[in-house]
Amino acid sequence: MTSKNTFTATIVFVDDEEFILNMAKRLFSGKFNVITYKSPTQLQNDLGHLNPALFVLDWLMPEMDGLSLCRQIRENHQFDLVPIIFFSGIEPSEQNIIDSLDAGALSFIPKPSAPGFLISQINALVSNYFKSVFYTKQRETILSVARHDMANFMTGVVSGVEMIKMKMSYSPFPNEMTDEIDVILSSAEKLKKILEDIPLLLTNSSEELKEFNFEPVPVPMIIHDAMNFISNSGIEALSDHICDNIVTCNRNILSRAIYYLSRYIYDNLTSTKEKIILKAESDPEFIKFSLIAANFHDSSFKQNIYFTSTTMNFTEKGILPITYVEKALNLHESILEMENNEISTTLFFKLNTTAG
């Protein structure tokens, strides 16, 4: 007897041939929830509402070729783990197969192919997808539990050291060990902040991002928080031209994003560690948050592109800062941009005054 709660995986076919779509339903409807689209546009209209385990794309279609559609799907990080295959009548030449893999597909199946071969390929890809999802969720759960426990322990460390410091003020030797205790307190507070950053780093979907709270915050308060994080990390920076507008945001996440961006810039300064200049300037429609640095160099950065942690060649040291910035700006519906001149480099993002 089948349980009413049995989950059925969804596979999506996009093909302009009705015959192929009917064949897909006939072959797979007994095992999967099969959703079919006759054009890329139809899929694009529904893409934000889908939760598939596999995309099966035709190559040659009237509105848009399958390669372009594949690239668009890959730009949506919601589908990072979801496999894409081409099932197409186009010649399976070496170059076509290379192009399909470069676009983000995992396999190329030529038409016509034996139904058994198509079925075995799709079954294997769907099975591997759920293994990847299970591993990812398991890792996230472990990290989340560990973060919670570590945060509790760190709170205990901070409280305990503060109690010791308070008792020492009544000691005959009040200055003894004060510097060492201050170092312990500072390190514990920094570790506690990193643990608080983990939930954002673990988010993988727009639905998870909705769990973060927004509130109206004066821009100077955001900059003040960011400057505290920056100065506590030993990075030299100064704030300049800070507007007094109010934005709707997650105050902690936005200020931490500015800190992480300054940290990434500081690690990539090519010569003397000159001060980073932080600005927040108002425009009729938005606030422009800028970090300006001389001698900054990273070959991954190119002018006027959308920077993401998956498209840039980061060193291991840079993955955490830029991933946090990417997710924080995604949460605030913004992107990271860059401007260059002969003297300095400016990394900036814009936030609507009514964002959130």
UniProtKB/TrEMBL annotation:
Which positions bear 4-aspartylphosphate? 58
Q: Where are the transmembrane segments?
A: none
**Which top-rank group of organisms is this from?**
Bacteria
Q: Entry's Pfam families?
A: Response_reg
**A GO biological-process term:** phosphorelay signal transduction system
- Which keywords describe this protein according to UniProt? Phosphoprotein
> Response regulatory domain: which residues?
10-126
PANTHER family for the chain: RESPONSE REGULATORY DOMAIN-CONTAINING PROTEIN (PTHR44591:SF3), STRESS RESPONSE REGULATOR PROTEIN 1 (PTHR44591)
Instruction: Give the protein name, as stated in the record.
Output: Response regulatory domain-containing protein
The record lists the organism as: Candidatus Wallbacteria bacterium HGW-Wallbacteria-1
